[in-house]
Amino acid sequence: MSRAMEAGRTLAMGENEAAAGGRQSVDTPFGKALARLGQERGNIVGLTADLGKYTDIHPFRDAHPDRFFNVGMAEQNLVAVAAGLARTKKQVFATTYGVFASRRAFDFVAIALAHSNLDVKIIAGLPGLTTGYGGTHQAIEDLALMRMIPGLTIIDPMDATEIDAATVAMSDHQGPVYMRLLRGAVPVVLEPGYKFEIGKARQLRDGKDVGIISTGMMSERAIDAAALLEKRGISVAVLHVPTIKPFDAETVAAFAASVGQVVTAENHVIVGGLASLVVETLFDAGIVRKVTRIGLPDRYIECGAVPTLQQKYGLTVEAVVEKIVAIG
Amino acid sequence: MTRNSPPAEADVAALKARATQLRRHMLTMARGQGAGYIGQGLGIADALTALYFHELRYDPENLGWADRDRFLLSTGHYSIALWAALAEAGIIPVDELVTYGADNSRLEMSTLDTTPGVEVIGGSLGHGLGQGVGQALGLRLDRSEARVFVELSDGELQEGSTWEAAMSASHFRLDGLVALVDCNGIQADGPVVLDMEPVADKWRSFGWETFEIDGNDMDAVVATLAKARQRNGKPKAIVLRTLPGKGVRRIEQSEKSHFFRVDVAHWDTIIDEFEHSVGAGR
User: Cα–Cα distance between A81 and A94 in angstroms, integer?
Assistant: First the structure.
């Protein structure tokens, strides 16, 4: 079991927090993908706000030092500078923690970037409960905040394979993107041939009793929970929705219609994020299903070891299993 | 209209006449809407004239020219002055100025970048300088000689993001970046509500080569812009001390209001007096 699973210890900055355990992992998948893309695409510029090595952009920095700038601890300026660079036809990858990109720099993302549809990718570390540093560092409401920004693409990838694929896809896409980052040693869950497409959900498992609609690291938990539940006679399908915006409403509605009841699972508060999107989608489509929401409560989370917090707030495989057994 | 490029010698008399023309346009716009940010616009008219008709390299026929100098109006509500300058520069039709602030007009009360000639969305104060830093960095990566001019205001200096940008500009040694700090002494709630003095010393302490001049003195503006061309590793700040309403006596003498509104009859009197004072009655 990884260091992250040692109970009772708050991890130091930079240690891996996402792994649910038992799988191969890839180190720094985002930074590796970006460094590779930087070889082919000379207009890519990297930016960070004093969190280069904590947001996995250091492989790009080391490979392309002439195209990397650290603006210091100033996230509003990070986004403003990114916007200015984009206006000179650069494609900018700007990294910081999700809390700072969303809460602190919100007006800059909305007005300086998205309003002008500029080609800037915001890479947001420490999504949800992937840090034990408490409310200051846990981006538990970033999806809700950012999805209100018109034209902003929002991605919450589930593993190293998807981070690599999403980095390429967002570079191919012209326009602003917000991606939640799993950093460090990130587990590999998806097969190498997995195709990521912005705006497309992927069904990872078939089933009929319960359909889990999940995003980000919760999709790994969802497929593990589904395997365990099958042994207990509950047939569980899993739909992974890596793109929060634009939302694949058509696939989500069809998926919900194909199962007895729906469970949403997200590494985020249960208001305003994936759960809200699913409920809105089903309502619009006229599909009536019971929806059970797995995610964080509408409150600030305390400091503590990540495994302890994930266990306490129901983001573990076991917690997903228990919840579905209880509603089954 | 041909490509604008700084000539060796400035024709200051011609620039002064052009500034009067900008002021005339602004009065027409404000009369049409009955109101506007005319005080600020008249105050910055001389600096915008010096930029658009002397200092900036740009091509009105090719606004996307990669090596153009950029002018970023961070205070979007100064749009009335920018529209006047862009009309005089042949970028937007002079006839369109009367639509200022009207529904469906491209000439908004606060700038959006969808209007030709507008380089950034201004108006959310504190956004302009950081975007200027990014553009200057991008132009340097392209090995372009083009420079970036950012107008911002004294009230805007209260936005912390302005200083984040100021720190980064000197750190990155962006000597092709010029900040024009319009110190007109007013902000939304009246006379500057939070003392920002000494403004020039603040910029100097942030590593900027700083000049402080009467922003309504065309000779001084032109001469200082020439000094700011130097590529010496430092960004340049020009602190412009300007008079809100400059050149239009009744607006100069009015309560220093952020947003100026009078009835149409009053506008006619104001315009008549202006034309009389410039000796060019219609």
Answer: 9
Which token pair is A24? 């191969």
B102 within 8 A of B162, measured Cβ to Cβ: no
User: Which chain A residues contact residue B112 at CB under 8 A?
Assistant: 115
Alpha-carbon distances of A146 from A75, A82, A175, A315, B26, rounded to whole Å:
15, 17, 15, 22, 39
Are both A177 and A223 inside the same structural domain? Answer: no
* Sign of the Cα pseudo-torsion (A147, A153, B163, B191, in order): negative
Are the beta carbons of B124 and A111 separated by less than 8 Å?
yes
| Cβ within 8 Å, pair A76-B126 | yes
Longest Cα separation, chain B:
54
Number of H helices, E strands in chain A: 12, 14
- Vertex B5, ends B2 and B6: CA angle to 5°? 140
| A60 and A209 share one domain | no
Question: Does the predicted model carry a pTM greater than 0.90?
Answer: yes
- CB of B190 closer than 8 Å to CB of B256: yes
| Contact by Cβ (8 Å): A292, A282 | no
The boundaries of the domain holding residue A84 are 20-187
- Judge whether A237 and A213 are in contact, CB under 8 Å: no
Q: A286: Cβ–Cβ under 8 A, 6 or more apart, which residues?
A: none
Domain at B12-278: CATH code: 3.40.50.970
- Tell me whether B118 touches chain A (CB under 8 Å): no
Whether residue B110 lies within 8 A of chain A, CB to CB, comes out as: no
- Asked whether B248 and B27 are in contact (CB, 8 A), the reply is yes
Cα Dmax for chain A: 58
Residues of chain B positioned with their CB less than 8 A from the CB of A71: 164, 168
Interface with A, mutate which of B69, B119, B141 (most A CBs under 10 A): B141
A30 and A151 co-located in one domain: yes
- Among A263, A286, A287, smallest CA distance to A275 is for A263
Q: Whose CA is closest to A63, among A73, A74, A52?
A: A52
**Closest C-alpha to A177, from A30, A58, A9:** A30
CATH number at residue A168: 3.40.50.970
Domain ranges across chain B = 12-278
Residue A289, Cβ density class (10 Å: 0-12 exposed, 13-18 middle, ≥19 buried): middle
Same domain, yes or no, for A181 and A232?
no
Chain B nearest C-alpha distance from A159 (Å): 32
Burial group, residue B18, by CB count within 10 angstroms (0-12, 13-18, 19+): buried
**CB nearest B132 (choices: A84, A89, A116):** A84
User: Which tens digit of pLDDT belongs to each residue from B12-42?
Assistant: 999 999 999 999 999 999 998 888 899 999 9
Average pLDDT per consecutive 10 residues, chain A (328 residues; last block may be shorter):
44 52 90 98 98 97 98 98 98 98 98 98 98 97 98 98 98 98 97 93 98 98 98 98 98 98 98 98 98 97 97 98 94
| Tokens 């999403």 belong to residue | A166
ipTM: 0.96
- Give Cβ neighbours of residue B77 (< 8 Å, ≥ 6 apart): B37, B40, B109, B110, B122, B123
Task: Give the DSSP letter string of B119-141.
Answer: -S---STT-HHHHHHHHHHHHHH
Backbone angles phi, psi at A317, to 5 degrees: -55, -45
